[in-house]
Amino acid sequence: MRIGCGFDVHRFVPHRPLILGGVTIPHDLGLEGHSDADVLLHALADALLGAAALGDIGGHFPPGDPRYKDADSLCLLQEVYRMVKRAGYRLGNADTVIIAERPKLAPFIPQMRERIAKALEVPIDSISIKATTTEGLGFTGREEGIAAQASVLLLDSDAMPAV
Ligand SMILES: Nc1ccn([C@@H]2O[C@H](COP(=O)(O)O)[C@@H](O)[C@H]2O)c(=O)n1
Ligand SMILES: C[C@@]1(CO)OP(=O)(O)OP(=O)(O)OC[C@H]1O
């Protein structure tokens, strides 16, 4: 068994879509990034890589590389999970939190969990997503951007499921 953690932040800007967990969320601002700036998926990808001691997403998908311009982070997450599986692990479970003052994310969380579980081919109860504000405090509270954190547990791929 191996544990990993991931953290990411992206800044709000106008004229960009807001994409979180592979879901486009109606909002007046989006997140700035070289890729689609899906801050949740970036934190999750880093947690997966960290658990397998495989570095971080910036190392595998360098910011500025034209191949990743506006990249779909769900595809990057799938690529990361392929690396993790090649290293001999499979996902036990992931727990994540999105830190955002606005918009209200709770209505979109079931769809995000579904998208991620489908992309990774894991049961939906392996993927947890939560949302919190920072009660108006700090850069998230001032709505300058969104942060996300993720923790994952990897199991050895040859281990039997617990009964
Ligand atoms: N962007 C957000 C932030 C929070 N939520 C939901 O609201 C609940 C209360 O948030 P607090 O920061 O006051 O603890 C939280 O449990 C989330 O379910 C949200 O939907 N979108
Ligand atoms: C996936 C990448 C690719 O450019 O996305 P970015 O939008 O640059 O986001 P960031 O979280 O700053 O770094 C990760 C990058 O590897």
UniProtKB/TrEMBL annotation:
Q: Where does 4-CDP-2-C-methyl-D-erythritol 2-phosphate bind?
A: 8-10, 34-35, 56-58, 132-135, 139, 142
MF-aspect GO terms: 2-C-methyl-D-erythritol 2,4-cyclodiphosphate synthase activity; metal ion binding
Q: What single Pfam family name could you report for this chain, choosing any that match? A: YgbB
The record's cofactor note says: Binds 1 divalent metal cation per subunit.
State the needed cofactors, names only.
a divalent metal cation
| Record flagged with keyword Cell membrane | no
| Enzyme Commission (EC) number | 4.6.1.12
The family database entries (InterPro entries) matched by this protein are listed as: MECDP_synthase, MECDP_synthase_CS, MECDP_synthase_sf
Subunit details: Homotrimer.
General function of this protein: Involved in the biosynthesis of isopentenyl diphosphate (IPP) and dimethylallyl diphosphate (DMAPP), two major building blocks of isoprenoid compounds. Catalyzes the conversion of 4-diphosphocytidyl-2-C-methyl-D-erythritol 2-phosphate (CDP-ME2P) to 2-C-methyl-D-erythritol 2,4-cyclodiphosphate (ME-CPP) with a corresponding release of cytidine 5-monophosphate (CMP).
Q: Which family, according to the similarity comment?
A: Belongs to the IspF family.
Recorded protein name is 2-C-methyl-D-erythritol 2,4-cyclodiphosphate synthase
> From which organism does this entry originate?
Neomoorella humiferrea
Gene expressing this chain: ispF
